[in-house]
Amino acid sequence: MMETAEPSDISNTLESIGELAEQAAAEGFYSLQDVGLLIVEALSALPTASVTTGLLTALARLSECFSEYSFGAESAIPDIIGIISYPNLQIALTEDELTALAEQLTTDLTAGAWPIDEEEATPEAAEDGATSSSLSKETMELVELLEMEAALIQRLLCAIDLDTAGATDPLASLADNLERYVNASKMAGFEGLALICEHIGRNVQLCRDQPERFAAPQLQALQDWIANVARYLSGFNETGAGMPMLAQLGHTDWPQPITMEAAAILMTLLQTTGSDADNSAPAIGRIELATPEDVTLALPDDVNHELLAILLQELPVQTQAFSTALQALKTGGSLADLDTAQRIAHNVKGAANTVGIKGVAQLTHYLEDVLVACAEQHTLPGAGLLYTLIEAADCLEAMSESLLGQSPPPDNATAVLQAILDWAKRIELNGLDEIAASAPPPQPLATPAEAAATEVVPTDAADKQQAPMVRIEAEQLEQLFRQAGENIIINSQANERLRRMKNQLQAMQEQFELLRRLGDELEQLTDLKDLSGRSLSPDKPLHDALEMDQYNELHTASRRMVEAAFDAREMNLDASKDLAEMYRLLEDQQRLVTETQETIMAARLVPISSIFHRLQRSLRQTCRLTGKDCELELTGEQMMVDGNTPNAMIDPIMHLLRNAVDHGIEDPQERLSLGKSAQGNITIDFARDGNYIVVRVRDDGRGLDYAAIRQVAEQRGVLSPGQTASEAELQQVILRPNFSTRTEATQTSGRGVGMDVVNYQIQAQGGSLALHSVAGVGLTVEMKIPLPLSRSHALLTHIGPYRIALANKGIRQILFAAPDDFSDSPDGKQLLIEDSLYSVITLNKLLHLPDQRPVGQFHQTALLVQGLQQSWAVMVDSIADGLDIVIKNFGFYIKKIPGFIGATILGDGAVAPVVDLPELLLMADSNADYAAFLNFADPLPLTANLPKVLVVDDSLSQRRALEQLLQDAGYHVQTARDGIEAAEQLDTFTPDIVLTDLEMPRMNGIEFASHIRIRDKFSRLPVIMITSRTTQMHRKMAEAAGISLYLVKPVREDDLLAQMQHLIDSHATA
């Protein structure tokens, strides 16, 4: 396993290559400078853990190559191309781009002061040229690639020093190179050479396992072998080619020499390969055999969820339109349908590549190749090809459904991709006309059962079905959340009514009990009266009174009243039981409604890490613009927050990042002289503090330059010359509007968007911003941002006739305060609790309401509240209740009122304002009147002074990707779907530059550029066209339409930003 390089070694390598690039530019070798910048960019983008010593060893050769090239050695060009093609660098250049770069390097060299000596044109060279001319261009390109790789291995072997410790360490890098060389040889059709490289790899492994067997003879054997490989490649199609290489492999210096039998077999392979290489060479960059890994729909771990959502929204529509276009071709369509299908395949490919869904990207990539071949020859696909294209369209739709969770991945995806690859190869070798003449009748592709029997078992990632996904707009999610909140409110009101009914039934029960007692008393009195009446008669009656009907109506009425009271009491008890059951049912409903709201809320939660890639990209871009090197670290990024929270934080954080790099982090040389590492470090820490998110952006730079701050403050009249100002006061100065210590505007600073806007954005969200700077150690900017509240536990209190709901945000404790707990101080009253003093303030004073308590009477209920800057004791008249509430905003027509989150509907239907105590206390800390904030003038938004860009592209995902890139780079971006929409936007939006695609519906990029040029206001407006069209015809059309710069996809982000800045600056000074 390769050893990870030290950060200091990486930094030194970056610095060295950067200096080489600058030197190349100074000498006029601009293509050589591009090579250096490409490598610096790629190496900077790699995680430190993935940079190996082998990679740095390969890059160490770059200095020698640059030097040889500068002195006119054209032989250095293959070595340079070999280095830039090093796989571990991960530079995304196609073979065509590498070939073009090599040609440009040759052109720059021949255009310099190094004439080719006529004596170099020897007969041998002419003979080689004749041999080369007999081979196809594709074969020669493949051979040149193998020669470049061989040269790289040769340089690696030459760099091994046996006299130093760890002489076998470079063998790990050599093993990696050999493995890559085996694959390259097989791809080029050199099977014999691939087997020889595998044999060499086994010898190298033996030397690694037994270092004592690796000495000077073995090193020399390796060097001789790679020299023989180079000679073989220079004349591989000649008789006897490869014999010296095979003879040398049988030498006893090898730990494992080759046998005679193996040599004979290899010689046959070397000769056959040489004669068949021209016919067997595949197209460069195209895979030959489709595998399940090529059609996997697994999402990358670092997928951008916003772009994924856009793709899932676009994909069903695009795939359906693609199928429609191909079906139109089946029923006798036109070249317009072919063009539509090609454009859709191109857009889907770009979107899938942007998100990282390999299966969709691969299939649409090769579909586009086939469709472009048809379009270039103005030929509609024949029946056989069209059948395969329609099968591919069906497969693409199945992939779309699988990504949406509506079905499993298509079983025939590998077979479909293989069929498209076969067609692409046949078209390349034979052309469309010959294929159409000899095309067999269309055959169905492998059925799912056949595919399962023939395909390789897919990987776990590819085999897993995508979890079901449903597209839902944020507005609909917000509506569901609101409805769940309304349910909670109605449920709480029902609970309140039920509580009242329960109290009324209880009162009725008491009345029934009283009625029962009164009935008993009445019955006793009636019986006594009857007894007294009978006692007056001297004679005993012969019959009972009941028998003689001597009970009167009073007896009957009293008895009936007692029975009725008893029955009513029983009915009341039954109603109470039913009411209790109803109460339990309402509690269950309340729980379910609460769970529903929490589930909807969870659907809106995203990890803060979702913005990491944007922060990292913004940092890299700023570093490249300033020539500095910084590393970004995030802690606490797995915290889940509301989906709107990261978006609310991203702009302030990115501004702080740019500020840290531009103002805080020193140049690498300065950092080294100060004993710091050349690479700066910026850490963003996310933490939860109650209902707040605390974001700390910390750098290890120079800290605040108080002298520069004072100087600018005196120049602007903020401070008088010589006026005493503490560091805390100077920190507040940089929060003033439009304050900057930079005198020149650059792409990273000096545009008038200062820390004041960041501070306002944080305060507008109810948060706070604090600065902590240590000279020479760095600056920490701490932002405290409240989390949005929709539900909260609240305390219901009364202030005179008003009922106020106090959100539990920041409330640490509720306690009873005795008069002896209070004391007076110069700063006002204080409350002593558990040896801690708290500043005392009444809720009446915070809300600017009169205190109606008698003079000298203390508030006895105290709330200990953690404010943003200190802790307070807030005194209230009383706490009436504690309840869970749903918070509703004040609506569109009521502006944000500082200290008030919103309002809530209580159980009795009354509306009570919900107070945010920490925000009210923040104004108490600053001695501010909250009413003054209601007329506070809004400062300019973050985009006010930024350069304006209009992005025009019919692909939603491409628009969003460009929009995000440019916003992160510090531009104000507006987008349009096509030329018509863009032309309408120009009536109200004046951009500084326009980025447009070429192929768009309604009005394409050429027509839109012509429209711009006929308008006097925009006649000199810079316009960049970004397209996949590479032909000279399209370039000339763009130039004639007034396009300022024509870029071919894929475009490197840094190149695009640099070109944009150059055009904007040129336009501003023109």
TrEMBL record:
Superkingdom, natural source: Bacteria
Entry keyword annotation includes Cell inner membrane: no
Family matches, as Gene3D superfamilies: 3.40.50.2300, Histidine kinase-like ATPase, C-terminal domain, HPT domain, SH3 Domains
Region (Disordered): 438-465
Enzyme nomenclature, EC number: 2.7.13.3
The keyword Oxidoreductase is annotated on this UniProt entry: no
Residue positions where Phosphohistidine is found in the record: 346
Keyword terms, alphabetized: Coiled coil, Kinase, Phosphoprotein, Transferase, Two-component regulatory system
GO annotation (BP), single: chemotaxis
Biased composition, class Low complexity, residue ranges: 446-460
Domain spans labelled Histidine kinase: 581-789
Entry function: Involved in the transmission of sensory signals from the chemoreceptors to the flagellar motors. CheA is autophosphorylated; it can transfer its phosphate group to either CheB or CheY.
Protein name stated in the entry: Chemotaxis protein CheA
Organism of origin: Methylovulum psychrotolerans
